[in-house]
Design a protein that fits this description.
single chain; about 140 residues; alpha/beta; Rossmann fold; 7 helices; 5 strands; about 55% helix; about 15% strand
């Protein structure tokens, strides 16, 4: 199954938090993984914030970063090209999502995802409004 993950949901694969157990179930049924080009910098930013907050040490960071990079090697990375930008504009005009959330939804739509996985209620609604089959994973108290 072609499954597209937004960054906050995919990060749960590397940092144990609320919703991580549900993410693994979606990963198990994924045959083709789709991610936005924004995924790597957004997740690394979240990892580094956790280092500053002292909830992640350097060794844990290195392990998580290496696992993330390994997984991304096998993913279809959706770039910020004209079709994604036009789709994100439509999403922004029709729903109350933030720009980065719209880019993830637009990327999933352009990539023809069979499932879209998110941890954000507004992004989930925007994905449904855009015609995607969207699933909401419990959101932790710390956003990306």
């Amino acid at each position: 199954m072609r499954v597209f993950f937004d960054s906050s949901s995919f990060a749960k694969r590397y940092i144990e938090e609320a919703g991580s157990e549900h993410l693994e179930a979606f990963c198990a049924e994924t045959t083709t993984l789709g991610l936005s080009i924004l995924c790597l910098p957004e997740i690394l930013s979240a990892f580094n914030r956790r280092i500053r907050e002292k909830s992640l040490n350097q060794n844990q960071y290195q392990i998580a970063k290496e696992a993330l990079i390994h997984d991304i090697e096998d993913a279809d990375i959706v770039r910020l090209e004209e079709d994604v930008l036009l789709a994100s504009r439509n999403i922004l005009e029709q729903t109350p999502v933030r720009a980065m959330d719209a880019i993830h939804v637009a990327s999933a739509k352009v990539w023809n995802a069979e499932r879209f996985i998110t941890s954000d209620h507004r992004q989930h609604s925007a994905a449904l409004d855009s015609g995607l089959s969207s699933f909401l994973i419990y959101n932790s108290s710390v956003p990306l």
